[in-house]
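[09:14] KT: can someone run the structure on this one? pasting the chain below
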Amino acid sequence: MADERKSAAARTRPTSITRLDKITLGELVAAYFAYPAIQVYIALTVICTALALYLAAGPWLIAAAFVGGGLAYPFAWYLVHRFVLHGRFLYRSPYTAALWKRIHYDHHINPNDLQVLFGSLYTTVPTIAVVMAPLGWLIGGPAGAAAALAAGFAMMCLYEFCHCIQHLSFKPKSKYLRRIKKRHMAHHFHYEGGNFGITNFGWDRLFGTLYNDPREVPRSETVFNLGYTAEEAARFPWVAELSPEANFGAASEAGNL
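[09:31] RB: done, structure tokens below
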């Protein structure tokens, strides 16, 4: 009887909860809140908010630091995404090749894999701290730093969830969500040199990297491998050595906008 129950459970269990193109919205929500990094971001948001309130001399500076952190986050994300994650200097060093592979290359090679969609805590937490804490300190001292950190971790939760929705085989009812989903899918499946935002594309618009219609720009041959071609792999082999299954001359995923 026990074996029959296990067999029945196996038949009803999702075949691959990590494949965003194969799971439902409900399964995504469950997987999202069960993911350790998300739990850490939520905990840090609560802790930093409590610390800000404890240290606060007045509510207005805390509010200003929180809002300032929330406004600064999209700009910081744009810069990191465009110039670090899509830069080529990380894979050209044996000391940072594995880092680049984990934080962005794997995601572009397998855009629908939930396991490589979320950022790694050892990269995201320090980045948020370096950007948000000084900004908040300038606005409101220690309490402001804590408030800005709370904003950064809360924004990270929002970004990660919207990022999941963008890769999920699901058509949002919200026009806003449909719009940002279309832009992000174009970034992954058409041309990776634009649409660097996740929830906010204002900086793309300002710096000329926004495109609303894939027909506006030619399709990129490096949209999946981010320029790490067979030629680059021959010169800088460290990512290739960690990716024995990869075909560096072709895309490993196919998708439709």
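[09:33] KT: thanks! The mean pLDDT is 87.
[09:34] RB: yep, looked fine to me
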